[in-house]
Amino acid sequence: MKPKTIHRLYRAVTVLFAALLLMAGITEAVAHESGKEIMRHLGYPEHVLHVIGVGKILAAVALVQRRFPTVREWAYAGVTFNLLGACVARAAAGDSAGLILSPLIFLAVLFASYFLGKTSERLRRDGQRAAGDQPLVAAHVVRAA
Known about the structure:
The protein is an all-alpha fold.
């Protein structure tokens, strides 16, 4: 695949995932009744819903921003923990295999976003070096005249 194609695919997957995450986060942050029922079913107090919702909203914003890559990495990690925790909570509640495994589908999309982003970044960096541009890590070095 061409670097531009990979980058466009990364952006599309990431924006789609972030939009879904944002919608889920808003629903949970306002403690919609369906979310409260799920929390009761899983044995969690309802106020946990607010915390998870706000976390998802912040993660959605962090995933699409470009200025702070470390914050984006933390968002990927946080959402990964949330989705794995959802699998465990569903299993502990005795839910069906479909409900237990459904967060793994979202996890696969999240991983696709992450690895497409890393590949896009690497290809961009390699392309700059091949074109004779100064590497990003050496941008602070001043050359003697």
